[in-house]
Amino acid sequence: MNKKIMALVLAALLALVSLAGCGSQGNEEKETGAAPTQLQNIKFLSGPTGTTWYSQASAFSGIAAKEGITVDVLSGSAVSNVIQIENGSADMGLTFSSYMPAMVEGKVVAKVGDKEYFKEPVKNVRTLCNTTTAGYALLVSAESPYKTIADLKDKPIKYVTYPVGFTARYVPEKMLEAAGITYDSIQKAGGKVDFVGKYQEACDILAKGQADVIAYTMAVNAQSAALAELESQREFRILAIGDDVINKVTSELPLVVATIPKGMHKSVTEDTKVLADITTWVVKADMPDETVAKILDSMLKNMDSMAQVGNSEFNGFTAKELIRLYGSGSQLPLHPAAEKYFKEKGAI
């Protein structure tokens, strides 16, 4: 691995585990030793500023303020957010459903030095709800001879992906493996696997004709700025994903099948199926029941604000949409108060 790639990997992994500070203040137990019945200050770990994760956390912060709860929204990542909640450094955060089996079973998804994250099962974190959708795609240029993921097998392709810790690496890697393709097999066929630190960089490489295939994660309900920039230079195509690949991947990871609609980008000339991750809100296991119920109820009653400020996908969300992965694959257990809330709403 050359120095540039090593630097990208180290930078990405350090970002995964950077701590955003100490645990929430103002939630201490009373002198009597009794736990608080409701949190008044919540530390909420989201995604980088400017992302839909940060936006939906910020939207909820505004809603919570009306309920007398102060929510401090901080940036983070799908892996580091869970680590911080597990360690007691935060109250709630966002992650992706694709990491759930690793959290439950104890499977390494990121390493920094001798530290292996999720090597041991996560014990102090509970599922709260499911929200927005992110689709995974393998992109090629519109003139590429490759039409399906299976077409890549035993071909000398140049594949561009990301450092360990990116879900845009993790899930597409599983998709390739389901089609019998690994990084080793790509190299044995005379191809090459390159790593970049930004989605825009991967798109730029494809635009210049310097890659055959790139991994990408995209919204399923709105255009991506990086893809709009890509197709201003070169139109792209999403490789078709066969039912065999879908079945193999979803048997391991709690993903869903989504559709990228025709015309969302000019390069998308037909409705296209993709595997999609679901943003999952998680909370510390000992979050008071009253706080959990208030979080869910206030969000459900203010879906218009969540859609306007957070993500338009929240439009029309009901309690059933907020728990749509319930019973699907291996997941962190629901917080008991969340389970009670959704049962009372008839959602589970």
Automatic annotation (TrEMBL):
InterPro entries noted in UniProt: TRAP_TAXI
Sorted UniProt keywords: Receptor, Signal
Signal sequence region: 1-20
Presence of the UniProt keyword Signal in the record: yes
UniProt keyword annotation of Transmembrane present: no
PANTHER family the UniProt entry points to: SLL1037 PROTEIN (PTHR42941)
Record's protein name: TRAP transporter solute receptor
Native source organism of the sequence: Desulfocucumis palustris
